[in-house]
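Thread title: Can someone regenerate the structure for this chain?

I was given the following input by a collaborator and told the matching structure tokens would be attached. They weren't. Posting the sequence so someone can regenerate them.
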Amino acid sequence: MTDLPQLDPVIHAQARLRVTVALAGLRPGDQITFPRLQQLLDMTAGNLSTHLRKLEDAEYVEITKAYEHRTPVTLVRLTAAGRAAFESYTKALHRLLDATGGD
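Best answer:
Regenerated them for you:
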């Protein structure tokens, strides 16, 4: 059997994969507010924060704190490194499925 590809453990956790997929759906450089991301993923604020921290530590996401009309807002975006890691992850997953028959 050929060498099976390794899947990025930072992305591979289900919740982080869901976050990464949601952010990868945005155009490069676009941001989403934390509450909107939380709503899209149906995650608690604490759970989302924990997974975003792991992704931020890996430099896959960037968190920006700003103000809109004197109201604090947290913005999240996928970095270029995060987008590249996600693309590598999906390619590795396809290779893994192809190597095992995909059924």
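Residues 9-95 form a domain with the Arc Repressor Mutant, subunit A fold (CATH 1.10.10.10).
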